[in-house]
Amino acid sequence: MLTIVKLVQSLVKALHSEGTPGQLAAGIALGAILGLTPLVSLHNAILFGLIVILNVSFPGAMLGWAVFIPVGFLLDPLFDHIGHVLLIHTPALTPLWTAMYNMPVVPLTNFNNTVTLGSLVFSAVFFLPLFFTARWAVTRYRATIGERVRQSKWYRALTASKLYNVYRLFRPES
Amino acid sequence: MSVRVFRWRAIGPLLLFALIGAVLWVLFADRIARLSAEKVGTAIVGAKVEIEHLHIDLANGDVTVRGLTVANPHEALKNLFQADELTADLDVLPLLEKKVVIDRLAATGLRFGTPRATDGRVPGDPNASVSGRVMGEARDWAQRFQVPALQLATGKIDVATLDPRRLSAIPAAQALSGRADSSRKAWQTGLDSLRLGAAVDSATATLARLKTARVTDLAALNDARRAIDQLKQARNRVTTLERGVTGGLAALRAGALGLDSAKQRDYAFARGLMKLPSLDAPEIGLALFAPTAVAQFQRALYWTQVAKAHMPPGLQPRADEGPPRRRRSGSTVRFPRERALPGFLLRTAELSFLLDPTAAQPKKYAGRLTGLTSDPAVYGRPTLFEASAPAVTAGAMLDHVHATARDTAGATVQGVTLPPIQLPSLPMTLDPGRGTAQLGFALRGDTIRARWAIRSTQVHWARDSAAPRSTGADLLWRTLSGITDLQVDAGVTGTLSHPRLVVRSNLDDAIAARLRTILGEEAAAAERRLRAEVDRQVDPAIAPVKARVTTLQTDMTKRLADQRARLDKAQKDLEARLRELTRIRLP
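^ Those are the sequences you sent over. The predicted structure of the assembly is below.
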């Protein structure tokens, strides 16, 4: 229950943040990569750093992460299959993998794991469609029911909380 | 309005976050590494690996392990070894490639076979873990050896129940019966298709015409010759059929003789079932010491196969199960490359160990291990182990550099306390005391050659007081309890799928002579009983079949002879009449 409440809270905050629809969509798309790929990987540490440093919506990223974690679990068989095809059943790529495997730092990304590589490739392919879809959806939301939600009592209560102040630290800068 | 790309004020919190991560690493790295090492070690060995303390000093590239205990995967309450301290000189840079390279490792206070309070074995899933799969394969391999039973405890020979389904003569008789039936049907069809009646009838009619014909009646003469040709053709068909029948009958007779051979095999099978002790000395050695010897070979095979699984030959990419996690593990593929660093490499290990640690003054020895690696083809050299001291010689070579793995190991330990040996089916235990143990093991591809031997001059015998007493057991006890020397030699040769085991000991002749005295008469009587039981079950099945084969032979021979006689008579009559008609009568 708490998870669902936090998810809704995150969603509302993200949709009403000061960021542009593009910033919010970029945050969601980057967060989706966090959710789709196995969390404990070097590329996710780099991705987290990018989410913090780049001027994208942090709540949007958290929203994308939260939403796409279960999707990642569901799509694991597909990722495993993609990884198998790329790592094992495509001999043309073997020299590339061999070079990467024997390169400093790169093996720490676990790229040679079928699920990790499959999910990362899927996320990369999925990134732009998700970005544009999310940007269109946020724009539509703000143009239709966004203002009414902003005037509601429970939204004001939410923005008045201390947690909101922490959030403001990472809000997108215009 | 332009949007800035970077959020510079988040740098501070990000650095703080990184700092917290670094502090957590410093605080928990040792613990995480210890737990990981225990987990990986347990998965490799197939038994618990426990570490009391582990410290990583990345700045100096040192790893120190204290209180290492590795349980024995083959014995519940025994450790494989314990070590007081292991100090590893770690190469730090390869860690960036996720590779562990240890330049030098010093292990002190190694003790083998120490007791433990809890069962350290980890029952591995044969489908999920390498150690579980290898353990199952080694167990299956050990069960390939047919060890004869030796039963003396009660002085009686057990005649096990004879299951008719396992006798080979009965299904052979059923099969022969089927063959006889189908042969009979086929030959009957062959006889019917000869159409001899038409040929004989035609010949008879022609003969009747010839009786009233004159020599100038050329049409009748031509008909007679045509009828003779038809008879000859019919006889050829009979000859062809006869040839087939003769061959078929010979096969059926051979089958009937084969039933006797099958019956002999059933006698031998039944003899094995009734646990009849062989009175041959080599068989006795096998019965007494094969389980102990096979257990030694099984362990050696287990370790070589575990090594092969984790040190596979070749440079091809290979996929292993991915790391355990909430998400699907997937497969982790390794891409070894020549002249690169292997995933794991221990260049040199100096081992200091104690033998016979429970003795009042355990002796300290030293050994050396080189080139232990997960990618032998990448490293390009075999793994070597050697340890030598006045009373100990041990060496091993795991050569997985080439496509066909070659593993050899050998050890001789003198003056060590040998474990007691429970002799199967005998109400006594053999305690070899201090003696010499030897083990040699060589596995090249699928070909195995192994030898295990023990020598002792301080043998003690302990009688099992709970076992029922019998005259035979008493006699055997009196014979064996006076023997103080022990020499056992066991060897395995052949392939892993078809291994041959030979076991000899100096006890064999003594026990064989005593067995002849004790069990000779009873064994003969038991064998007679068993042969009678085999006869009772087998004879009702094979006697009718043999009779059918004989009847079929007689019947077919007679029928073919009759047909041939009919044809011969018709032809003879026709030819006689023709000669009579065409004879030139001189005035």
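Residues 2-75+122-169 of chain A form one domain. The longest helix of chain A spans residues 114-144.

Shout if you want it in another format.
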